[in-house]
Amino acid sequence: MGNKGGFNWSVLLGAAFLMATSSIGPGFLTQTTVFTQTLLASFGFVILISIILDIGAQLNVWRVIGISGKRGQDVANMVMPGLGYFVALLIVMGGLGFNIGNIAGAGMGFNVMFGIDTVTGAVISAIIAISIFLFKEAGRLMDRFTQIAGFVMIILTLYVAISSAPPVGEAITKTFMPDIIDPMAIVTLVGGTVGGYITFSGGHRLIDAGIVGQKALPQITRSSVTGVCVTGIMRVVLFLAALGVISQGLQLDSANPPASVFNLAVGNVGYKIFGVVMWAAAISSVIGAAYTSVSFIRSFSPKIENNYRWFVIAFIVFSTVVFAIVGQPVKTLIVVGTLNGLILPITLLVMIIAAHKKSIVGDYKHPLWMSIFGVIVVLMTAYMGILTVINQLPKLFM
């Protein structure tokens, strides 16, 4: 695989898992369970369509970043001066808001596993995340950590899915012939998988590892598709676990739907497994959000570039302090979730424009089908993003 053999392969897999585990956070677990509850087996169709759209969005972004060798904010500044700063601001704000939620999720995972209080669990989790960035080889450690977290989540959830005995045949049938099609669910999933900072996390990781230029295109493509597939596998496994429990006529607890899936499928052991999955999902998202948010301001100043690991650490510390003092500010998360819905159409459109600018990608020819695919995702997510803003803003003033 590539000219440097093992190293490249581990970085490509690391980038794919960084992106995948960034998207598999506390919100991912809750969303997947709640949608399974409302759409039942037909949710399989939503997952299938969203994976296809995710691949379309991610290929556009990773190819432009990889070919140009420039991070998202620098590409945006080349498309339109000043745009990169605006995109960076959106991503850092979004990343910070989500990181408070991720830290909360990590604390909750600790609480389920060991019974210690959520804030203490959050602080311990933050220290674990910070310790990765104290090492010179932070990139490789991050690669390894996110891969282990990803495998642990998938294997444990698979065990729960098998235990819940889901109607697999029905799930497969309804994936291709759904009873109901929910466009809102599709866009929510696309936003949750490649929205905000997430799609850039792996692309920026490849730049840091020097996997750039046209010669690296096959590797960039493979890594970007792998990332979406890993997220898809986790989503399918969790969907089947939830479907199995719901098909038995069992009621999910609305306060914590994913925890009740694990609990109802495997009893108390299942609840502990949920703690592990929740923690792995949250801590890997903390790492991904902090790393990617800081990568969006790195190129603006040599000070940040030279000390970027300390900025990542400061980002994690700040998120943890906010959570410890304020708890999980619901309004902040609503605002951030709304903003995040608007980030994807903006950044993706910028990348599609950049893909056709010689000054950015040189003599690289971007496939037309990929641009068309990207534009479809831009229009869908922009429409939904605007709807979300209209629906959510009144809630903030209530």
UniProtKB/TrEMBL annotation:
Keyword terms, alphabetized: Membrane, Transmembrane, Transmembrane helix
Protein's membrane topology: Multi-pass membrane protein
Subcellular locations according to the entry: Membrane
Keyword Membrane on entry: yes
Chief localisation class: membrane
GO cellular component terms, A-Z: plasma membrane
GO molecular function, one term: cadmium ion transmembrane transporter activity
GO BP annotations, alphabetical order: iron ion transmembrane transport
A Pfam family recorded for this sequence: Nramp
Transmembrane segments: 39-62, 83-106, 112-135, 147-165, 185-207, 228-250, 270-296, 308-327, 333-356, 368-390
Keyword DNA repair: no
Protein name as it appears in the record: Mn2+ and Fe2+ transporters of the NRAMP family
